[in-house]
Amino acid sequence: MKKLVLVALAAICLGAVTASAQSYKLEFSGGTSVSSCELASSGVGVSSVHVILTGSGGVTAVLFGAQIPACWAGTTWIRDNPAVQVIYPSSMEDPVGDFWLALGDTQSPLGLSIAFKECLELPLYLGTIEFMGGGPAPCCEFAATHPSYWDNFSTPAQVVDCNFNEHDAAGGSVKVSSGPTCPCQNALATEQTTWGRVKALYR
Fold it and tell me: Which CATH number fits the domain that encloses residue 115?
């Protein structure tokens, strides 16, 4: 099984057959719902950016970056926290149960590549990126960023579909904290967020 997942990872890192029939977007959010437009921490202390891949069709791999914006001064990256346990190509173990294969991280020029062991339908909750926030940053947008190492695409993200075709993916953003000139209005602010509601947004 690990060898099959390596195929998907290689496809996104080495370049697969380019296709354009499907559309994808990597959303950044303040919660597990794509409608959470502001970080729950407002940029202070431990802060989590939630990552959700939306679009049509299924996917087998994704590659993206998430550089800290200059407007969020004093912030440091803690870790990438995928929603499912991850292993790395150098690992000698053959994990039991569900797993994803990962390479790199969101802060490096290579970006973070994640390959799934099967075709997964969208929307797909990928997990969080955790930071130690330097403080409130009203109107500061945290957006998905293009990993600088790759010159075969220029969008914030790339995905590989279930036929191992490569697609460009647009990138979304989330406010670190809102302000008088950039209010944040969460569509589901008064309700508890569930994964079912995330999927309901795309029906």
Answer: 2.60.40.680
Count of domains observed in the chain: 1
Sign of the CA dihedral running 65, 196, 123, 5: positive
Does residue 195 contact residue 51 with C-beta atoms inside 8 Å?
A: no
What confidence tens digit (pLDDT) does each residue in 15-70 have? 444 445 568 999 999 999 888 899 999 999 999 999 999 998 899 999 999 999 99
Residue 108: exposure state from Cβ atoms within 10 A (0-12, 13-18, ≥19): middle
Per the structure, the complete domain to which residue 83 belongs is given by 2-181+190-200
